[in-house]
Design brief:
Layout (H helix, E strand, L loop, with lengths): L4 E3 L11 E3 L1 E3 L2 E3 L6 E5 L6 E6 L3 H16 L8 H17 L1 H12 L3 H24 L3 E3 L6 E9 L2 E5 L5 H15 L2 E5 L6 H13 L6 E3 L4 H10 L5 E5 L2 H12 L4 E5 L5 E4 L5 H13 L11 E5 L3 H14 L1 E3 L14 H16 L3 E4 L17 E4 L6 H4 L6 E7 L2 H9 L3 E2 L1 E5 L3 H10 L4 E4 L14 E2 L2 E2 L4 H6 L2 E9 L12
Parallel strand pairs: 1-16, 2-6, 9-10, 9-12, 10-11, 12-13, 14-15, 14-21, 15-19, 18-19, 21-22
Antiparallel strand pairs: 3-4, 5-6, 7-8, 8-25, 13-24, 17-18, 20-23
Helix pairs in contact: 1-7, 2-4, 2-5, 2-6, 3-4, 4-5, 9-10
Length: 508
């Protein structure tokens, strides 16, 4: 693969010492009671880049207790929307002031390019500001046409204590899709980041204190799914769980939360298609496909891991995607020009490679890549840009979430065939269509089973626009007004004016 664009040099130095991440419980940063820690090795550079406290039931119980007390005494939930918004806006300012620090540790822990980490962390500030605006503008409804003596009011109130469990692929962004909206609603929160990428969440704790968030309103426990995450999903003092991660874990959370009838919101996996018609901007579509499969090394729930291309243009279109793939800069994440970094763990890299080898064994053809990538001077956790053809819809590579830089190609003849292939999946997170005919775009958008449909673009997102999936891609929504409403309960208040109620008991 000598024709790939590989960058091995770096312009940013590694830190002198690992970052120390600690729990944040009732307003205080603290170590684990038993002193246990977990070291994170950089997937691209090797060596320990962070050392995090490793939590147990002790820290989780303490965090839930603190969040429960903070909610019940109203120190946050009973504040005005204006007061809550002021704190959230200060957090946004502090995020922007600390982008470089946040981005560096995220790059070192996740393996993503520093330029993308900067965009993720800096962009998250906008989520906090939008959530702040919702804190001020949230309102219920009134019904004044029920009779001259009746007034009914529908109130929106915070749901209570929320457990927030976030993944490793976009640790700061996904946290910011959840936490500020829960806080804007007046909830208190217990947060568990992935044990692989804990540090940006721990850094946020310092900003919350500086911004004036009351103690106990947001508590952070570092550690593994068992025991920390497990207790966060089953504890009777938790009112809601919001989780982003794999579909398998999402199903487990749904079952465990069911015993206490918690509300559960899930953002899970995807096998997202882009459908390519001949009458579109083919160059723009090819670039979007390339972006969609290699962004964050394909470790993205919205990755466009399969394309459905019209038979008439399939050969030429795939050839163009292969050509563009060779021009994408893979390599050292600490080089600002790098576009694709390292795979998050050796185990995940092996899983990606196993998917590819199984596809070849099933009869598929590798047009590009299909093997680990050697980046001079760096570790082994890189994978080549990979494009696979001769794929049938029943193959595992066409149905399973690979979560890596692996693109599969399917073809179609008619719109009905394209829609059938789009919907022939257990997932329903995102879908896209490239076509210059607005009627075709609208019909596809209406019939596609997906939480988001993009037309003539891919992965454009805005804080105002809700995000989430259907089928096994999840339930509930994040961001936007609909995502904000996930953290609210509706209460109906019916008031009779005066002594107008007719007696039910007929007295003698």
């Amino acid at each position: 693969m000598n024709d790939l664009h590989i960058l091995s040099d770096q312009t940013i130095a590694l830190p002198d010492a690992p970052y120390r991440a600690r729990h944040f419980i009732n307003g205080v940063a603290q170590d684990s009671a038993d002193g246990r820690t977990s070291d994170r090795l950089s997937p691209s550079h090797g060596g320990v880049v962070s050392q995090a406290a490793l939590g147990s039931e002790v820290e989780t119980e303490a965090a839930i207790k603190a969040a429960r007390a903070a909610f019940d005494d109203g120190r946050w939930s009973r504040l005005s929307g204006k007061a809550r918004a002021a704190v959230l806006n200060r957090v946004a300012d502090l995020i922007e002031a600390n982008v470089e620090k946040l981005a560096l540790i995220e790059t070192l822990e996740s393996g993503k390019p520093i330029s993308q980490a900067r965009g993720e962390c800096g962009g998250a500030a906008d989520l906090w500001r939008y959530a702040a605006s919702l804190a001020r503008t949230s309102h219920g409804d009134s019904h004044n046409t029920l009779g001259s003596d009746i007034l009914a009011v529908v109130l929106k109130e915070p749901i209570g204590v929320v457990s927030i469990i976030t993944p490793w692929n976009f640790p700061f962004w996904i946290l910011s899709q959840k936490l500020p909206f829960a806080l804007a609603a007046g909830c208190t929160c217990v947060v568990k980041p992935s044990e692989v990428t804990p540090s940006t969440t721990a850094m946020l704790a310092e900003m919350l204190v500086e911004a004036g968030l009351p103690a106990g309103v947001c508590d952070i426990v570092l550690g593994c799914g068992n025991p920390v995450g497990a207790l966060m999903t089953t504890h009777p003092q938790v009112d809601m769980v919001t989780f982003t991660g794999s579909t398998a874990v999402g199903k487990m959370i749904t079952k465990s939360a069911g015993d206490t009838l918690k509300k559960v919101a899930l953002e899970l996996g995807g096998k997202n298609p882009q459908v390519i018609f001949p009458n579109c901007d083919l160059e723009g579509a090819a670039d979007a496909v390339t972006f969609g499969i290699y962004f964050n090394v394909g470790q993205c729930c919205n990755s466009s891991s399969r394309i459905i291309v019209h038979e008439d243009i399939a050969d030429a279109f795939v050839a163009r995607v292969v050509d563009l793939s060779r021009q994408v800069a893979f390599g050292n994440p600490l080089n600002p020009d790098t576009q694709v970094g390292a795979i998050v763990t050796p185990e995940h890299a092996a899983k990606i490679d196993a998917h590819v080898r199984a596809a070849v064994a099933a009869g598929s053809t590798v047009c590009l890549g299909g093997a680990p990538l050697i980046v001079p001077g760096l570790g082994p956790q890189f994978y080549q840009p990979t494009v696979i053809r001769n794929v049938t819809p029943d193959m595992a590579i066409a149905r399973d979430e690979v979560f890596g830089p692996v693109l599969v190609v399917l073809t179609f003849r008619t719109l009905d065939q394209a829609i059938a292939l789009t919907n022939d999946a257990t997932y329903g997170l995102s879908a896209g269509i490239w076509c210059d005919d607005v009627h075709t775009c609208l019909e596809f958008s209406r019939r596609a089973q997906a939480g988001t449909v993009w037309t003539n673009t891919w992965m454009d997102g805005f804080p105002e626009v809700a995000f989430g999936g259907v089928k096994q891609s999840g339930q509930g929504r994040e961001i936007g007004a609909y995502g904000f409403d996930e953290f609210l309960e509706v209460k109906s208040l019916v008031m009779r004016l005066g002594r107008t109620r007719a007696p039910w008991v007929k007295q003698a």
